[in-house]
Design a protein that fits this description.
2 copies of one chain form a homodimer.
Chain A lengths: L11 E5 L6 E6 L6 H8 L5 E6 H17 L4 E6 L8 H13 L7 E6 L1 H13 L5 E6 L2 H7 L7 E3 L2 E5 L7 E5 L8 H18 L1 H16 L2 H20 L14 H10 L9 H18 L5 H14 L15 H10 L8 E6 L5 E7 L1 H11 L1
Parallel strand pairs in A: 2-9, 3-4, 3-5, 5-6, 6-9
Antiparallel strand pairs in A: 1-2, 7-8, 10-11
Helix pairs in contact in A: 1-2, 5-6, 5-8, 6-7, 6-8, 6-10, 7-8, 9-10, 9-12, 10-11, 12-13
């Protein structure tokens, strides 16, 4: 049997303009099976270490490896256990050891093949081995394609919280294979879609309106999916360009995330109850409703945001979380634990309407507590 | 009993010009006991975690802590085991956990109080906690004052080699207390002096000549010591400014280090046999002698370099290493393990005379092996 010829040309290219740390995001189907020639052209002479997890390896390691072999590229592979628990000091040390054992040098590249866990972990490893190696993100979930694989935030978790240890380290290339998303469970696709909708809600009302009309096509695949991923990546690339180290406007990307992180913490990061994108969906609805309460946003716009996420099949209220989310005080404690709290003042992303989000850095904790008490 | 009033004014300030990552190196006596007001002035509102080792804590933790307390600054302290073995994943994880337990935020600072091990480890911790915190280097050895505390190279060791895991992360301030060097054992002072002499040998013949005349005063303390440390820091700051990430001329700082690292590896990093500065001393003499062999350097200049290091009491030949250094093949194997070997070609820092070093990136391994065989 002959292998299907690799499709080398991406349907879309988004350039992340960061000077000497800039890179391209290629978006389209067939990019995993066609990775070899693309890598050979961009990184002549380099060797590779592919890092992936057991689940993703079952779907995508063989086609990627075959493509590298066909292009004459040397690689080794490191397979970790799937799941958030792998963002640990222990697995971090194991992967560092694996990369050093493979005798990769500074000019060689790591390939992060997988979702956000693999991307965050491998990006951190690449950021510290030999004080910084290049790496390629090959995100295989919608969430990773539109969010975590772009922007250079890497890290692992500790007992004190998520992503508290890591570096800013930009990839040298992102290959977002939109065909790979066909292997996702519907719940995971929906969860990633919450972050797609987020870009509309932040500052792109036209994109939000387009999603309201075309979301079924995004789920089905094809040109609409490519367009949704590309628009999301372009939005994120823009914010990253103007605020690489997250000292200012990049915080807009946290729309729905302060509430969302609190819900995730309360549910013990138990994916059977709540995954990240679901938490963000609820968080975005809360952010809109809270903005209505603050007389910032019209009830109609808040209802429209909620209706779209509900149509997708995403949860839109803390009451939908299996097992509940505790008391308003529990949620406030979790919010105060979040690393975006600065010297006791609460920073939230609030909104004046669809696509009109802004950073509010002086929100009074009491008002938030009273609001949350009504939501749970 | 009243405490001696702190001396706030440093005798010398060297600015490391790296744009928004730039910082000052203050050099002079009394800087540890006078740290509090300096920190309060530079970093208003910040809290601190002092990281040091048991040996250094005995000499310097109380005066530093008292100075912070007197200035109204909040701090916690973390004390690690002295020695190179602390540059490990395990101690790294412990210090990260200690910093997070102290609930420091992104605007707070770590203080690395100690020699190169503490500085490299704490710099790495600061580079990754919350994706980058600020830190202050307070180097208490001559080696750390003139070399490792300046330039932002941080890291830990793995079973694959030294400093293979780390980041480039510049400190926000360096306090080089030249009075603290009075607590050093003579052997450790001599070892640090090898790096001082290195700056003369790299590109500053006038400084080397000054050292030949004034080295006893540098050892005795006072103005000559401040001048020697300041000249060294200024030299290193210049190289770091033009090549922060060590892609080019910064390699000059490795004069004597390719041979030196090989000798350290062969002796198992056993400080009772050979410490880093001693290895560098032997390495620099080998680099000069090898340059004579290659008809690059006059025998007189090589003899002059050797004579000065010998006068200090530093070893100048592999034959002086207790227990020997194995065969030429052993040394070559260690050289090939070194991370400065790129795709099989050997890069050495060679010299055309005192203060005329240059990067030679095409040295033939066979010639080196033959030379080394005569030296051991």
């Amino acid at each position: 049997m002959t292998r299907e010829p690799a499709r080398l040309a991406a349907a879309e290219t988004v350039a992340v303009e960061l000077g000497e740390r800039g890179y391209d995001i290629l978006i389209g189907p067939g990019l995993i099976a066609g990775a070899g020639p693309e890598l050979a052209r961009r990184f002549p002479g380099a060797r590779y270490a592919i890092v992936t997890d057991e689940t993703v390896a079952g779907h995508h390691l063989e086609p990627l490896a075959a493509s590298l072999t066909d292009a004459g590229l040397a690689y080794s592979s490191i397979v970790i256990t799937p799941g958030e628990a792998s963002k640990s000091f222990e697995v971090f040390g194991d992967v560092v050891d694996g990369v050093l054992s493979a005798r990769l040098e500074r000019g060689d590249l790591l390939i992060a093949l997988g979702g956000g866990v693999v991307g965050d972990l491998v990006g951190f490893v690449a950021g510290v081995v030999r004080r910084g190696m290049r790496f390629v993100q090959v995100p295989t979930t919608l969430l990773a394609q539109v969010d975590s694989s772009v922007g250079g935030k890497t890290g692992i978790n500790t007992r004190h919280g998520k992503n508290l240890v890591g570096v800013f380290h930009q990839p040298s290339l992102v290959l977002a294979d939109t065909g790979a998303l066909d292997t996702l469970a519907p719940r995971d696709f929906r969860a990633g879609y919450a972050e797609v909708a987020k870009y509309g809600l932040i500052d792109d009302p036209a994109f939000f309106a387009w999603l309201e009309t075309h979301w079924q096509e995004v789920f089905a695949g094809g040109a609409a999916r490519i367009q949704a991923v590309a628009t999301s990546c372009r939005a994120k690339a823009h914010v990253v360009r103007i605020d690489e180290k997250e000292t200012g406007p990049r915080a807009l990307l946290n729309l729905g995330h302060t509430f969302g992180h609190a819900l995730e913490a309360i549910t013990g990061y138990d994916g059977s109850r709540l995954v990240h994108g679901e938490a963000v969906s609820i968080g975005m609805v809360l952010a809109h409703d809270f903005s209505v309460r603050m007389n910032l946003c019209s009830p109609d716009d808040a209802a429209r945001a909620r209706a779209h996420l509900e149509a997708i099949g995403l949860p839109v209220s803390p009451r939908q979380v299996p097992g509940g989310v505790g008391t308003a005080d529990d949620l406030m404690a979790a919010i105060f634990q979040d690393k975006k709290v600065k010297r006791g003042r609460l920073t939230f992303i609030l909104t004046r309407g669809i696509g009109q989000s802004f950073i509010a850095d002086d929100v009074a904790p009491d008002v938030v507590r009273a609001f949350l008490a009504e939501q749970i």
